[in-house]
Specification:
Blueprint: H1 3-24, E1 41-44, H2 48-79, H3 81-111, E2 114-118, E3 121-126, E4 132-137, E5 141-147, H4 150-155, E6 158-164, E7 171-177, H5 179-185
Antiparallel strand pairs: 1-2, 2-3, 3-4, 5-6, 6-7
Length: about 200
């Protein structure tokens, strides 16, 4: 997208975000965690590259259906032009409406995901309709796994999987971490190296 289109989309999205946040009472600010005076605490969202990564999959997923709708409409128009003109509005709605809904949903997912790290725990909050908030004490962490596929490496992000003791060894996923965040999760004292996304 060019700069003008990007600014227009951002302006429309800010309006949509305001309506959705008010309607569903989505907390706009980061969650909090209790911290001892002078203790380490940092709140952040997934790396901005994670949003670009999700948009890439958005285009890969919806472009074939958009092309299919266009080819179908073009075929009808070639053989029966008046029917093609008649179904043009329906074809446009079928092609554009899902794109808009999914595009806004990607931004909402990104904007409602928060990570809070202290020297003792990690809190993950995500969701719009149902808000999921998970707090993980570092004392209960059994294993930390960083997953990064080739496409994630291209975008400079990784998934961090934190496995905890008890509860059947539950795994908690932090998606879209920058490499510095992902690698620092495995270090026992996160206050020494956890950093905000730079992308």
């Amino acid at each position: 997208m060019n700069d003008r289109t990007e600014r227009a989309a951002a302006w429309v999205y800010r309006g949509v975000w305001g309506v959705v946040a008010d309607w569903f009472r989505v907390p706009v600010e980061a969650p909090t965690l209790p911290v001892v005076p002078g203790g380490f605490v940092e709140s952040f969202k997934p790396a901005p590259a994670f949003l670009r990564y999700m948009k890439f999959w958005f285009w890969i997923g919806l472009l074939p259906s958009d092309i299919g709708i266009f080819v179908g409409w073009a075929a009808v128009t070639v053989f029966v032009p008046w029917v093609g003109l008649l179904v043009l509005p329906v074809a446009l709605v079928l092609a554009i409406a899902p794109d808009v809904v999914v595009y806004v949903a990607l931004h909402l997912r990104y904007d409602t995901t928060w990570y809070v790290v202290t020297d003792r725990s990690l809190r993950i909050r995500r969701g719009i309709w149902v808000i999921h908030e998970t707090t993980i004490s570092f004392e209960n962490v059994q294993n930390v796994e960083v997953r990064q596929g080739p496409l994630q490496r291209y975008f400079g992000i990784a998934d961090v999987v934190v496995q905890t003791a008890g509860g059947g060894g539950a795994a908690h996923h932090g998606k879209g971490a920058s490499p510095s965040q992902a690698s620092s999760t495995a270090i026992p004292d996160p206050s020494m190296c956890w950093s905000s996304p730079r992308n």
